[in-house]
Structures are given as C-alpha cells and as structure tokens.
Request: fold
Amino acid sequence: EIVLTQSPATLSLSPGERATLSCRASQSVSSYLAWYQQKPGQAPRLLIYDASNRATGIPARFSGSVSGTDFTLTISSLEPEDFAVYYCQQRTNWPLMYTFGQGTKLEIK
Amino acid sequence: QVQLQQSGPGLVKPSQTLSLTCAISGDSVSSNSAAWNWIRQSPSRGLEWLGRTYYRSKWYNEFSVSVESRIIISPDTSKNQFSLQLTSVTPEDTAVYYCARGVVPSGAFDIWGQGTMVTVSS
Reply:
C-alpha cells in the first residue's frame, strides 16, 4: 500500500508570501497525483490533477510539480482565502486504491 | 454546471445499514467519461476512498479492500443518481460521507457533494 506523507503538518505564513507544500510517496508512483484545498465545513476542492495541471477555475498562483516520488504544491503569493488544509491524493491500479495524505494546514502567521 | 446533492440519515444504529444517495445534475450517471465515488472523512482515518461505480458499455463496481465485504454502490439511471449502502456498521464508521465525480483517466475527484455527517450510535 502506498503511503503519502505530507509536510509540514502546519505552515504559518503571511498574505503575499510564497507557500511550498510537499507530498512524498512511499514508493514509485504514477503522475496521477492531485491536490485539494479544504476549508472548515466544506468538501475538498480540486486544485491540481496529474501532478501539474490546474483544474478548471483555479487561479494561476497555484502550481504543481514532481521530482521522482516528491510532489510539490506551490502558491506563489498567498491570498487571505488560501488559508486552509491541503491534501494530496494518488491512485494505484493493482489493486485499485485512492490514497490521501494526512494534510497540511496553512495558517495565517 | 455539474452538481451533486446528497441525502440520507445522519444517525444509524450499530449493526444496521448506512444508506446515502447522491443525485447528479449537469452530467449523467451513465457517462462514459466519469466514475461516481463515495469517500468518507473522519479525524481518526482522514480521507478514505470507499468505492465507485461507472459505465463503460456495462456497469462496473470497484471497492476499497477495507470495506469490500460490507459495501454496495448502485446506479439508478431513471433518477440519475447513485447510492451507497454500508452494512453492519460500527462506531468506527462514524464520519462525513461525500459523493464525488472521478475524472478519467487521472483519478482526480473534480466535483464533490456537500457531505453528510453520519453518526453510528445506539
């Protein structure tokens, strides 16, 4: 079973700063990695799919990248509405499984 | 604009069956380019994928090994919706349950229902 480890658990930044969130897979995975944003009382919202593609309507300040088993979500300049919890998610085929990381909480410093 | 609207009880007794429905608007449960999923979230287990149903000339169902002996996911083409049944529930099944559309082939979930808090308690 693939385990996704997100770091840091909590990230304290100010509006306007750059945020870098990490998601590391326990073994080699495909590029089918997605990032989600979740605010309290809401369902997760898809930000990035296939490691680096922005979902419909997602601002350009959100970007995703990959190097080996290390995936990164970057928010270039934080807006007040970006403070939330972020999750990564991976799919494996044999057996079929969708796995989520434990989340990174992005909080206002 | 695709929307998913969930319905179902928020309280289920231990050993009974949890039943939820997800009504689809703006897309079809029979779409050849989507899969229809159930995901739950709890403080102890985080986000956990439960299973999916999809149509590719015929209907397919796939489930997480963690619940595969207890789960049924059924499409209803007449009402354009799909449902979740989880049998023999215990307090560990207490969670917020979401339905979600899966994008093919990436496996990302691009549209989510509003979530239903289900508590398993006598």
The mean pLDDT of chain A is 95.
